[in-house]
Design a protein that fits this description.
Layout (H helix, E strand, L loop, with lengths): L1 E8 L6 H9 L6 E8 L6 H6 L7 E4 L5 H11 L4 E4 L5 E2 L3 H11 L5 E9 L5 E5 L5 H5 L11 E4 H7 L10 H11 L4 E12 L3 H4 L1 H14 L5 H22 L3 H11 L5 E3 L1
Length: 271
């Protein structure tokens, strides 16, 4: 089975080598197509990438119109039956694709396969575990993502039938995509295994207010009720701003204590 993995990058010299190595280790399990879409990085990203060029099937480095444009560019040129996206500061477990292939064989009618993921700090130290949920679809209508973003694999035929990422979304593009798949009847399968690790500090982490606004827009677009989501957004913003204030005045220890309590929720656990 051919699986395409897409890595999008921009000025990722500090992290992309770990990403590349984690993907290339998957080659023993499948016919792997590796695609890197770089947005014309100005640091040493391409110097690092070119060390692995013989093992990269498609390498593009050119200006783009944002991360959605890069995602969609990679999806459209992919030739694998299944497509995964791994950003340039994240990495897979050693046997991730083996686990996915086994699940694809077991659930041939499914179009989406996802598992669990770790979160790390900017230095790569594991701090939290996010677990997926087999009932993820009902949570989407509540504005909640129970599909860890590092840990999903989607059949190419699903993209062909339902469309690619909506470039009008700047932070919640993955949420909108999953909601659209759900509305169009795509079956998802949860696999209770850790697929990879995601570093804190991406666009959605930094622009959570804009992200929540996009979540509301997506739910409204597909006919959902946004009242509960608006309340949750208010409480999340209040908590986030309180945490930032406490960090600024030097109460990091108290923030860590609060984070442990937050991590006790069903799909987020302290590691």
């Amino acid at each position: 089975m051919k699986i395409s993995v897409i890595t999008v990058s921009y000025n990722s010299e500090a992290t992309i080598e770990q990403t590349i190595r984690s993907v290339l280790r998957q080659r023993e399990y499948c016919d792997l197509e590796y695609i890197i879409i770089d947005g014309a990085s100005t640091d040493r990203t391409m110097e690092i990438v070119k060390k692995y060029e013989p093992e990269i099937d498609v390498l593009i480095s050119e200006p783009d119109d944002g991360i959605c444009d890069a995602f969609n560019k990679g999806i459209k040129i992919s030739t694998g039956k299944v497509i995964a996206i791994l950003n340039s500061d994240d990495w897979y477990q050693d046997d991730t694709i083996k686990i996915v292939i086994d699940a694809i064989s077991k659930y041939p009618n499914a179009g989406l396969f996802f598992g669990d993921q770790y979160y790390s700090d900017v230095n790569g130290n594991i701090i939290l575990k996010m677990t997926g949920d087999p009932e993820y679809e009902k949570y989407l209508w509540q504005g909640l993502m129970k599909v860890p973003p590092v840990a999903w694999f989607i059949k190419k035929e699903v993209y062909e039938r339902c469309g690619v990422f909506d470039s009008s979304y700047k932070t919640a593009m993955d949420f909108e995509l999953l909601l659209r798949f759900s509305v169009q009847g795509v079956k998802g399968v949860y696999i209770p295994e850790v697929f990879g690790t995601m570093r804190y500090g991406g666009e959605s982490d930094q622009n959570y207010i804009g992200g929540y606004r996009e979540v509301l827009r997506a739910i409204k677009k597909y006919g959902g009720n946004t009242s509960l989501v608006k309340l949750r957004m208010f409480l999340w913003i209040l908590r986030s701003e309180t945490r930032r204030f406490l960090e600024r005045i030097g109460l990091q220890g108290f923030v860590n204590y609060l984070r442990k309590n937050v991590a006790s929720r069903k799909n987020l656990k302290q590691v």
